[in-house]
Amino acid sequence: MDSTPPSPWHPDRRWADPLIALLALIALMAAGLTLRTRQAGNHRPSARTSLQGQILEAALAGPRLLGGARVTPREWTRARTQLADPWDRALLAVLMAELGDPAEARGVLTEEGPAGLGGERFRRAFAAAYGSDLIPDAAAREDVGRRLGNGYAASLLEARLCDREGGPASGEALRARARSALLTRLAVLGGFGLLVMTFAVGGLAVGVYLWVTRRQPPVRPLPAWGLSGRAATLVFLGWFMAFFAAGNLSALLLTPWPSLRWAVVPLGTLFHAGIGVRLLCWAEGLTFPELWRRLAPGTARRNLAWGAAFLALAVFLVLTVAMATSLVLKPDQSPQRDLQELLRGLSGWGPSLAMFAVVAGVAPFFEELLFRGFLFPVLARQGRITLALFASALLFGAIHLQPAGLPILGTLGLVLALAVRQTGSLWPAILVHACWNGSLFLLMRAFA
């Protein structure tokens, strides 16, 4: 690539249009293949309980632990509907055996229990804990506990086995530790839930304010881009190609070192983000400092205040959309399953901090630069603000290739575009995106 051109890029249509068509075709094929592969992986039974299963574990066992309340038949029915993964159903069977009817718990296992060696070990452990079968060896029990998430249900199952080995008193210490761990988890979930509800109430107020003041002009205009529409399309498709190539190339480079599998995401993100930033600067004819000054004006205090306001709005709207879509969409695998599985494989502070820096730092920064700093203002040229808001939000949701998460991701993208529209700066959107990703990362890591 040549040095930075002296002016924004305006490619000749005679060669630009065929190239756009070719790149768009390749992009659609790559997206389709990736989506098919990801969907197949998402519907493949997991080798352990999911984040959803562990949260539901706390929701079912917590009220009984705190107030002695029994789990109602309606709650059991709802849990059986929500938990489709075999290991989540195994966890539910243990909870049902401890808090409800052991006979009904055996019925849950017969519907669709875990497969493979781990599933056979679980069935033997369950039959020994709540029946009279032979007690499995320590290695098998440890494997079952790990697959159950080493949480409350796993500890109760192990306590039952300890009772059979050494008498009723043998498992009491384990039960006490399990209750303490569950109380800690409940406190974390309760604090997180309270924070979310506080932001949701604030988000409603922000939404009302934005609606009332919708006819007022924004603080400053959207960032201006001088490149042509064809140039913008080529830049976006060029980044899209780099996005798909980055993960495969990173995985290939790290193949000789299986212990560095976790580094595929950080390395791939840095790779495609670097190419994307270079393309944007080259096409607009600016250095990165010049481009950044154009995209992110405003004082730190004002940007921080708007960031908090739009984070609250994002929480409110995402909760609203999630509740609405839950009425019409059947339970499915988590759209964040790939990330959950990756986080479970992290060990040590180094990989965890590196992953957090990418998920809550590099990725939000570049995605906001591309979608809200570049794509949204380009689409909004000639006053097409409403079209640009929804088109950029839809593309932001679609680019993640998570059909189950499209309503939520699209809603988040819309709020982020509104933040740039309201402030004329990229900083509030970056702050919202970083807080969103960081909080999800920490929640997943806490349950990993």
Automatic annotation (TrEMBL):
Any Pfam family: Rce1-like
InterPro entries according to UniProt: Rce1/LyrA-like_dom
Residue ranges crossing the lipid bilayer per the database entry: 15-35, 186-211, 231-254, 304-329, 349-366, 387-420, 426-447
Domain of life from the UniProt record: Bacteria
Signal sequence region: none
Keywords: Membrane, Transmembrane, Transmembrane helix
Limits of the CAAX prenyl protease 2/Lysostaphin resistance protein A-like domain: 352-438
PANTHER family hit by this protein: CAAX AMINO TERMINAL PROTEASE (PTHR43592), CAAX AMINO TERMINAL PROTEASE FAMILY PROTEIN (PTHR43592:SF15)
UniProt protein name: CAAX prenyl protease 2/Lysostaphin resistance protein A-like domain-containing protein
Organism (species): Geothrix edaphica
